[in-house]
Amino acid sequence: MTTQRIALDEYLGQAFNRIPVAMIVVNREGDIIRMNDLAETTFGYQSEELIGQKVETLIPSRYRHRHPGYRGGFLSEPSARPMGAGRDLSGLRKDGSEFPVEIGINPVETGEGPMILSVILDLSERKQSEKRIQDALQQKDLLLKEVHHRVKNNLQVIHSLLDLQALKISDTDMVDLLRDSQNRIRSMSLIHQTLYQSQNFAQVDFQRFLGELLPRLTESYGARSRQVRIDIQARDVKLPINEAIPCGLIVNELVSNALKHGFPNDQVGSVVVEIHQDADQVVHLSISDDGQGIPPGMDLARSESLGLQLVNLLTRQLHGQLEVQRSHPTRFTLTFRMGDKP
């Protein structure tokens, strides 16, 4: 027995008690044979209290009945590996308190027979740090949600003020200008509303946004909403807010232009808004209509229309390219890469 003991002690080495992780050696029956100083500190026992005891003493009672089977499975195919991969493991201290652990198990052949060397890491501090980080992230999410909610509310107040102002104006051209401003404000407000109502404050679900924006936009043009059908073709497109707002304003301007100018004399037709994103993070946004088209002599780059000026300005802001097809159908196609910078 003395020779066998020396053999195990030689395997563990003189540094066994100085290693900065808790280590426990058990035999194939699950009896504790050795434990280092840090294992004593971690579990709150003196070595003399545990040597010869079953290792299940250090496991919460609800898990103990399974442990001998796990140990037998390990001994049938011994190899160094983490214990309970994919499961949350817990240790049990002498005072009855539980704590999260990570355990690595290694087979050891010694003069005293096959042993299992367990390396135990106390994850209490790590779990507490993760909880603090999670709590901070939740607070950040609540703050962002409140910010988007307040921005949306403030934009809606401005929208309502413009609405009240329009009621006091008899000049139809001025009323149209106020309505255009209201629609632009609504577009920005709906971006913040979409973020506020979602669980992802970094990206806007653009399909959801279009589904909120376009019905309200067509309603603002009265009878046109019954003449012109809006078709949305968007699926799984998520845009960061810095790109969603310009895209939302571009959609607002081009759909408004189509409703105002594309279908004269009660002409019936449709407007198609399509957006998709390819694997290279390139976004393609297209607004098309089957109306009367753009007059051949109209210089879109020098147009005095505020709407088209905004479209060109926002295209440059996105570092994108805008292509125009004047008729059959009339189509504006914006292409840009997400995150592009000059």
Helix content bin? 40-55%
The CATH first-level class of the largest domain comes to Alpha Beta
Question: If classified by CATH, what would the architecture of the largest domain be?
Answer: 2-Layer Sandwich
* Name of the CATH homologous superfamily of the largest domain: Histidine kinase-like ATPase, C-terminal domain
- Report the major sheet: 6 strands, antiparallel
Question: Span between N and C termini?
Answer: 77 Å
Q: Please give the radius of gyration in angstroms.
A: 34 Å
What quaternary form is this? Answer: single chain
Q: Which structural class should the secondary elements be placed in?
A: alpha+beta
CATH topology of the largest domain: Heat Shock Protein 90
Shape field: elongated
The topology string of helices and strands comes to HEEHHHHEEEEHHEHHEEHEEHEE
Number of strands: 13
* Strand coverage percent: 15-25%
Average pLDDT over all residues: 85
- The total of helices stands at 11
Q: Are there runs of 5+ residues with pLDDT below 50, and where?
A: 1-6
